[in-house]
């Protein structure tokens, strides 16, 4: 009788310990409950055991592409993204000036093709200064196809893919107009995978081009911009690809005054040594109390796919984390893509551990059976 009672007590204690350990690491009580998808006419809301995120279909809070502003929630800490959204997409571009024809090309939405000759033609001193601060004055670039997707994209109807322990959202859109000598119609695809049990999502941006270019690239924000007033929302930024193999940690005080993208903290594949990793992250902090939060990081899994990237402070309290992918020769009917991991981390070591597990991948696929990163 005593031995039987002892066995019952041991089994009960084991159950309690197992339950506590599972709860401590944030595992859901029943993984089959996750993920949850709520869709309406305006947006798609994704909820896993660890995260929440919204993907807009129309009328976004800020931008149309990527994860909607303020919706990316880390359930472990309660922190959210503090910029204008994550993995936001702009134009399809190439190096060169559009000064000869930019003012002659207009579109139905009034968003003309020429966007990067403002500083060359601008007569208003304040406007000229803003353009120089926002875009710099070196390495001129021009649009191949538009519109700027995050800003001018029409409503979309993404495909939702339900898997056994994940959900994916796939959005496609064709560029509507092109520069002189080019044709519109290249297709952008963004695939986002939300696995259960982790504090990050995986994302791929892919271009199927109808044009040729010696250096075609797609511009995005990786992971996204940072809104702040004298560093009230973050304490530091980490860039793994500058200042040696360990990267650089930049205090928030470096971003109190505006500076252009070509002044500091910039990266160009043609002027820098190819890094082992390409990680961009900012360390969140509570705006009211100053308490430290998690890191929000964007990992571009193949460093060689990054053409140019910068981390600059624009006027108005916004740090812009632009990243341009590919920047290589592309022929009509060819494709290129980049794969990223974006999410919350307790420290920099966690970012690097995950990076090493997935390094070198540029593609992401998903169907009802599962998802996969590919090189």
SSE layout and pairing:
Elements: H1 2-24, E1 36-39, E2 43-47, E3 51-56, E4 73-74, E5 89-95, H2 118-121, H3 125-135, E6 141-146, H4 149-152, E7 159-162, E8 166-174, E9 177-178, E10 187-195, E11 200-208, E12 213-221, E13 226-227, E14 234-239, E15 248-251, E16 266-268, E17 279-285, E18 292-300, E19 306-310, E20 312-314, E21 318-320, E22 322-330, E23 335-345, H5 348-358, E24 363-367, E25 370-374
Antiparallel strand pairs: 1-2, 2-3, 3-4, 5-6, 5-12, 6-9, 7-8, 8-10, 10-11, 11-23, 12-22, 13-21, 14-15, 14-17, 16-19, 17-18, 18-23, 19-22, 20-21, 24-25
Summarize it.
The chain is mainly β and 375 residues long. The protein is 14% helix and 38% strand.
What does it look like?
With 375 residues, this protein is mainly beta. It has one domain (31-94, 146-374): Beta-galactosidase, Chain A, domain 5 (Distorted Sandwich), CATH 2.70.98. The protein is built from 5 helices and 25 strands. It has helices at 2-24, 118-121, 125-135, 149-152, 348-358; strands at residues 36-39, 43-47, 51-56, 73-74, 89-95, 141-146, 159-162, 166-174, 177-178, 187-195, 200-208, 213-221, 226-227, 234-239, 248-251, 266-268, 279-285, 292-300, 306-310, 312-314, 318-320, 322-330, 335-345, 363-367, 370-374. The strands form 5 sheets. It has a 9-stranded antiparallel sheet, covered by helices on one side. Strands 9-6-5-12-22-19-16 form a 7-stranded antiparallel sheet. A hairpin with a 3-residue loop joins strand 1 and strand 2. The longest helix has 23 residues, at 2-24. It is globular and about 60 Å long. The model is unreliable at 10-29 and 112-118 (pLDDT under 50).
